[in-house]
Structure prediction request, 219 residues.
Amino acid sequence: FALLFGFQRAVPILVLPTLLLVFCTFVTFGRAIDPREAFRRYWPLLLMSPIGVVLGTRALFLMDTRLLMLMLAVVIGVFLALDWRSRTRIAPVSRHPTAFAFPFGLLAGFCEGTVNVSGPMLLIFFLLLELEAGAIIAAMNYLFLLGKVVQSGALAAHGAFDRGVWQAAIPLGLVSAAMFLVGVRLRARFDPARYRDWLKLTLGVMAMLLMIRVATSST
Prediction:
């Protein structure tokens, strides 16, 4: 969508369908992690993510997003390269997840506000902690809900939700919800190791799409 419409138009269109998917995920994976335990360990993510979203939304309308996309793609690429060489087991992150949640939360929120993609930073953080797949989905879902609510408010303050956005968002949301149900059925067929490989592949695809966006917008 960013390739077709540019980020200032694509981000408002995708916020509402994503918010619908968050609620679908709550129904399916909400019990995969104890909310009290998640809050105790990862509360800085909940604190810093909204701050990052607000800053990122401001940057979306003030800065050239090509540089932001390029930086995010580089971060993803470095992580995947380290993972390929089996060097992503960083002991300080495992021993002090709460402390490291501060910078990851801020960066995830900033990426959410600017390029509508907080997933890569959160995935990197939880993969470094080697969480089980269901717990990753559940923990990210709480963060997505908070982030999308804050982002929606920030975009509304900028007058981004016009009639055209609603006309595009509603059918997208319905299709996304239907495909979510298909995805839940497919996920049950893969073991946790395979699922983690899919997550890493998803990160790689995200990085590639970001690079394509940077290349096409500069020509």
